[in-house]
From TrEMBL:
Signal peptide: 1-26
Keyword line: Signal, TPR repeat
Lineage, uppermost ranks: Bacteria, Pseudomonadati, Thermodesulfobacteriota, Desulfobacteria, Desulfobacterales
TPR repeats: 39-72
Coiled coil listed as a keyword: no
InterPro entries attached to this UniProt entry: TPR-like_helical_dom_sf, TPR_rpt
Pfam family membership, one: TPR_19
Protein name from the UniProt record: Uncharacterized protein
């Protein structure tokens, strides 16, 4: 299970930084979501906990990572995903929107955030808002 989680983590990281390619130069290697080893460790631990269904523990570790790097869009995205799983739909929507504000030109991450927003709105019964969000997700990548 840990190998699968690590592969998913690496894939998300590569896709995250792949969306940053273009006119900007990236200061971190494309296989790391952060230069801070504590953030990387917390994100990895949260990924393992999420895969094991330990959403409360995963969210605690992501919150710790966000105290270190509050402007990291991947951390906000992952916490939004956890909140969606926990049934905290408004928080999931707000955190995905925060991730979008910080995501810059990363269209892949923005599309994934719009999918979280769409699903949160759908579960809240806002079908029009959900369709709008899913439409933005499709036009992002």
């Amino acid at each position: 299970m840990k190998i699968i989680t690590r592969r998913v983590f690496i894939l998300i990281t590569i896709l995250f930084f792949g969306g940053c390619a273009g006119h900007q130069q990236i200061a971190v290697p494309p296989t790391q979501p952060s230069e801070n080893t504590a953030v990387i460790a917390l994100l990895s631990k949260a990924g393992d906990q999420s895969a094991a269904g330990q959403m409360d523990k995963a969210s605690e570790n992501l919150e710790r990572a966000l105290r270190i790097e509050p402007h990291n869009p991947l951390l906000w995205h992952e916490l939004a995903r956890i909140r969606l799983e926990q049934g905290q739909y408004r928080q999931a929507e707000n955190m995905a929107a925060k991730s979008n504000m910080l995501a810059g030109t990363n269209r892949y991450l923005k599309a994934e955030n719009w999918r979280i927003i769409g699903e949160a709105r759908n579960r809240l019964g806002d079908l029009h808002g959900a369709r709008e969000a899913f439409g933005k997700a499709e036009s992002s990548p």
